[in-house]
Design goal:
elongated, 5-stranded mixed β-sheet, alpha+beta, 3-stranded antiparallel β-sheet, hypothetical protein PF0899 fold
C-alpha cells in the first residue's frame, strides 16, 4: 500500500501534510552489540533522522517544492530511540537542505499493553506481569516511529529549474 499524503491549509503560506507509515521501526540495532552501548544507538538515530529528512523533502517536492517549516514525530517508548539523540542527529543531517532549521516536535507515545488472559489494559513494561499474574501481553501502543505531519511553506517554493 502506498503512503497517503493529505493536505489542509493551516495558514496562508503553509500547508500541513499528514504522513502515515513513513519511518518504519522494522529492526533496530542492538545496544548490546560488540561496538559498545552508545555506538549502535547513535547510528540508529542518525539513519532515522536521515530518513525523516529525505521523506520531508520528497513530500515538499510532491507539493510545490516549498521549504519544510515543521515536523511532528510520534515516538513510542518501546522503539529504543532516544529523543535527544534523534533531535541532535536531525539537526545535523538536515544542514544544507530545505529542512534545515525546521522545528521537530517529538511526541512520546507511552507503552500500552493488553493482558492475554484477563484482557486488562495497562501501561508499563512487557516484563512486568499483569495484576492477574500473567507476564507480557499484547502491545497496543509504544512501537510508533512515524511522522504524523510535515508543514511546508508554499511561499518559499523553489524557482523553476532550481535544485533543492
Amino acid at each position: 500500500m502506498k503512503d497517503d499524503v493529505h493536505g489542509s491549509i493551516i495558514a496562508r503560506s503553509k500547508k500541513k501534510f499528514s504522513v502515515t507509515s513513513v519511518v518504519k521501526p522494522a529492526r533496530f540495532l542492538s545496544s548490546r552489540g560488540g561496538r559498545g552501548k552508545n555506538a549502535s544507538h547513535h547510528m540508529h538515530e542518525t539513519s532515522v533522522a536521515q530518513r525523516m529528512v529525505d521523506t520531508a523533502i520528497e513530500v515538499a517536492d510532491q507539493n510545490g517544492g516549498g521549504r519544510v517549516v515543521g515536523m511532528r514525530l510520534l515516538l513510542g517508548e518501546m522503539t529504543c530511540v532516544e529523543p535527544e539523540t534523534l533531535s541532535f542527529a536531525f539537526a545535523v543531517v538536515s544542514r544544507g537542505t530545505r529542512v534545515e532549521g525546521c522545528p521537530l516536535e517529538i511526541v512520546r507515545v507511552p507503552t500500552r499493553l493488553r493482558c492475554r488472559t484477563c484482557g486488562a489494559e495497562r501501561g508499563g513494561d512487557l516484563l512486568e506481569p499483569c495484576a492477574c499474574g500473567t507476564p507480557g501481553g499484547e502491545v497496543l501502543a509504544g512501537r510508533e516511529l512515524r511522522l504524523a505531519s510535515i508543514d511546508i511553506d508554499e511561499e518559499a517554493a523553489l524557482p523553476a529549474g532550481e535544485q533543492p
